[in-house]
């Protein structure tokens, strides 16, 4: 079963953009994300419509962040992507008149709704700034480790 990884991909792109001084082309972002530039443009379009990014054409053009990272949450980005389904699982609806199917679907619906509510609450507390800070810490630790390994040689 194919999973929807657009949120993860967009967060990946946004962190690259936040760490970059200037605009990033769809081609550069596609290279970072191991995907196709067309996929980048299609995915970023929803973010542009939500005012999270902007794009400029021409020489020195590309995608830039158009928002304050500390004010944008993962929930905002999820919504800008069209609120894709959170779960790949779903109910069986082959025989809606079946009382067993109704009982199972009611239990699953309640559980899915409860879990999705908790997930969206958590997404609402996580900002892009927090992710960018985590990335910066990891990058600094990596560079320090690599520097120490170079000095040991």
TrEMBL record:
<dbReference type="InterPro" id="IPR000944">
    <property type="entry name" value="Tscrpt_reg_Rrf2"/>
</dbReference>
<dbReference type="Pfam" id="PF02082">
    <property type="entry name" value="Rrf2"/>
</dbReference>
<dbReference type="InterPro" id="IPR036388">
    <property type="entry name" value="WH-like_DNA-bd_sf"/>
</dbReference>
<dbReference type="InterPro" id="IPR036390">
    <property type="entry name" value="WH_DNA-bd_sf"/>
</dbReference>
<dbReference type="GO" id="GO:0005829">
    <property type="term" value="C:cytosol"/>
</dbReference>
<protein>
    <submittedName>
        <fullName>Transcriptional regulator</fullName>
    </submittedName>
</protein>
<dbReference type="GO" id="GO:0003700">
    <property type="term" value="F:DNA-binding transcription factor activity"/>
</dbReference>
